[in-house]
Structures are given as C-alpha cells and as structure tokens.
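Instructor's aside before we start: the two examples that follow are unrelated to each other. I chose them only because their records fit on one page, so don't look for a connection. First example below.
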Amino acid sequence: MFCCVALGFYFSCGIVIINAILLLQEHSLTKESQMNADILKQGIQSLDLEPIIVKLIDEKDGKGWSMQQALAATNEYRKFLFLVGLSLDDPKAGPIVPWGGVDEVWHTHILDTEKYQRDCNVLFGQFLHHFPYYGMRGEEDRQNLVQSAKETLDQVIKHFGEFLDGLNPYRQVPDTCSGKWCGGTLTADNQRIKATERPTLNQ
C-alpha cells in the first residue's frame, strides 16, 4: 500500500513537473513569437512606400488617386503585409486575401520588381508571390475565397480592431485575388488556393 501511495505521489509530481515544463515552453514560444511580430511590425513601418504612392497618384501613368486615398491604402497595405508575415510562421494559417485598395497597392509594388523582391527578402526572407486566379475556377474555388476573406477579416479585427468595408464577409464574392508564398510549409489551408491549377478558357 505504501509503495502504491509513493508511486502515485511520484507519478503526480511527474505530471505536475511535465505540465510546468510545457507551460514554460509555451510561454517561451509566445514571447518569441511576440518578439518576431514586433520586429516584423518595425520592418513594415520603416518600409519605403513613397515611390508606390507617387505612382498611385499619377493621373497619367498611375491610378489618379488623391493623396489621401493613396496614404490610406498604403496604410492598409502595411497591415496586409503584417498579416502575411505572421501567417508564414503559422503552419495552420490560410491564405491572406487583400481587401479594398490593398490589392491595387500590392499590384503597384510588384511592378517595381527589383524593389519588391528586395522588400520581400528584408521582411519575409523570401519572395511573396501573387496568385490572381483565386475564386475564378468554379464554385468551390469561389467559396474557398469567401472563407479565406472571412478568416482574413478575423485577423484584421484581432490585430487592428477595425472592420474594413472592402472586406465585408457578407459580400457574395470578395475580390478574386490572393497571395501565395513559396518556401513555406504546405498545409491543408495553403493547398486551398491550389496555385498549380490555373484557369483555362474552357472553365
């Protein structure tokens, strides 16, 4: 009987110790993730988007936006880049869908290929690919895009506490555009995009 009690005591202590270790590990990972998020945020805030703004406000070769529109959209674009950066460290994260004017800023940034590649390497350590066919390849693909838009909205609200009209989860069809990154962990959620399947004229 004494032996059983002693064994039970040591077993219980062992469980407590294991749980304590797991809690410490979780706390350490959370702290490390927060540090990485802070570094990412600093990098994004210091990102030079002035040439992109110049292009966006140009009436002849750009979008002809007002300065106010361009500044607001580039601010949202920084939020988009932050969410993308967080998703790269999360194997369970799904595609991040650009909302409203964010997509136009992203397109303009991409057109400056040298700067875009350099900025991606600085922020993410890899190239951020653009996959413009998400939601165009049948009803299932459209529903996947709607789901990704809702998940992106949840992330926007979680990190920034704002509801963005350009990403209303109750819209029937959100913008048919999304991001795909290479070199990351190919999870089930990332497979949702099916980036190897491009639309055809017969679809």
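Example two begins here.
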Amino acid sequence: MKRLWRRSCDAVLRRASISQAAACAALALALAGWALQGCSTMSSIGGPTPQQRRQNVETLLAAAGFRSLSAETSQQRQHLGNLPSGSLYYYTDSQGAQHYWFADPTYCQCMFYGDEAAYQRYEDLRLQNRLVEEQQQAQQANLAAQQMMMMGPMGMGVGPFMPFGFGFGPGMGFGF
C-alpha cells in the first residue's frame, strides 16, 4: 500500500510543478472521498436485518388495524413457536370470510390478526412505503450524479479547471 501511495504521489509530482506535500494531500483527499462514497453505497446494499423487516411489518400491521395477541403463558409461547412465522397467512372461516394472521415467536412473542379490510389497508400501506423508498433512492441517485458532475474530469474539485479543488480557473492554481 505504501508503495502504491508513493508511486501515485510521484506521478502527481511529475505532471505538475507543485510540492510533494501538496500532491500527497490532494491524493489523500481523493482517496478519502472515494472511500467515503464507497462506504455510503455499501451501507444501502445490505438492506434491513430480519429483525428490522419484522418490526417494519409489525408496525404496518398495527397501523392497518391488525390486533396484537401476546403469548403470555409458556403453553401459548410453545404454540406460537409451532406456527409458521415471518409471513402473513390467512384462513377462510365457515361463513366464507377471510382472516389474516402473522406470528412472531422470536421478537415480540405475539400474533397479529385481522380481517379483509385490515389486510387491504396493510397492502395500501406497503405500497405507499415502497413508493416512498423508491423516491428516496431516486433522490439519492440524483444527488450522487450531481456530486459527480461537480467533481470534474479528474474526480476531484469543482469544474473542469480544478481537478483537485485548488485555484480558480485556467492558469490559477494547478491542474493536469
């Protein structure tokens, strides 16, 4: 790494008549910017944890009108643990009405249940959340594109005449 750093600094020095300290500082800023940009994109790739996904679903279920039933006794917790969890399920009663349920034996140790109307509200909320997330991602992509456009051809500084952000135009400061 030190050798790569040194070669990069030497290459910058050969191309411009600036001090070694200024060249290495500019290179350090460039590498730090690229590293930070990479970290910010990597954090959004991982997505939510299983616990966060369940909390999001449970929040939407409660907002949609689903009722929560806590497993208070050990027998109830055991029965809850035997149910399939992490997804929304339904059953049809003898009158033909559909009832929906969501079991969470791991985090809240509860079960959410609701009727067809609550399920429709839940689906509407899910759609609204998905649209908001897509809008946020589009805004982040637009912001990243704007930042890249402002960085100039060398990936640093502002505009085409300031690759490292020093100086104010052609002939002022340094550039390549």
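Residues 27 and 123 are 50 Å apart (CA to CA).
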